[in-house]
Amino acid sequence: MRIINVASWLIVLLTNACMGQKTFDEKITSLLNNTVPIIKEEELSKRLQSENINLLDARSKEEFTVSHIDGAKFIDYDSFDKDMLKGLSMDDTVVVYCSVGYRSEKIGEKLQKLGYKNVLNLYGGIFEWKNKGHKVVDNKGAHTDSVHTYNKSWSQWLYKGVKVYE
Fold this sequence. Notes:
The protein is α/β, with parallel strands linked by helices. It is built from six helices and nine strands. 31% of the residues are buried.
């Protein structure tokens, strides 16, 4: 009986490996170039309580409208322009996020090139934020469980909350 259990386990393990299934952390690691320093959700949560941190949401307007981290400013990844940064000092702490961290890393790189000194990328983006139990708000500022997951394929990485996609 034990041999069958081990054999079954090995089949599942090999099947997952062959099909390219990854954990959320493996997926994020495969996407990021680590060009922008990472901040984990627990550190951001603590720092938001005592520091003035500028949150920039680098997702699409549709994604932002469904939900975002309270206090975040929308800056569209697809049409990013430095004029969107009015009011930010080059010395301000800026945390950029998107769904999982890829788009925010690219925006973070642009911020660094513009001369911003304290730019951080939220590890795992809004998915990790919500998965770890933090709150998000809708376009009216009301708490919501909904998160736009970009599409059905990406929705697999949101474990907590209501998945919204088109």
